[in-house]
Amino acid sequence: MVMGKEENLCWAFLVLLITILRIDNSFQWINAQLHYDDPVANLSTSWTNYNYDSGFISDEYNNLQPILFRNHFFCGFWCDKSSGACLFAILLASDTNGRLPQLVWSANRDSPVRQSATLGFTQNGDLILKNDDGSFVWSTNTGGKSVSGLNLTEEGNLVLYDKNNEKVWQSFDHPTDSLLLGQKLVLGNKLTASASASNWSRGSFSLAVQRNGLFAYIESDPPQYYFVDDFNLMTTPYIQFENGRFSRFSIPSASAAQLQFLKLGPDGHLNVYEWKGPDYNWMMADLLASYIDDCEYPLVCGKFGICSNRQCFCPDEANRFETRFFRPTNYGTPNQGCTPIIAISCDQSQYHSLMELQNTTYFNYRLLTYNDNFKLDYKTDLEGCKKACLNNCSCRAAQFVHSWDNLEGRGCLLISEVFSLVESRGNFVNASVFLKVQNPAAPTTLASLPKRSRRVTIILGSSLGAFFGVFLMAALGFFLYGRVKEDKELCEIYLNQVPGMAARFSYEDLTTKTNDFSTKLGEGGFGSVFKGTLHNGTQIAVKCLHGLGQVEKSFLS
Question: Taking the model in full, what pTM does it have?
Answer without folding.
Answer: 0.72
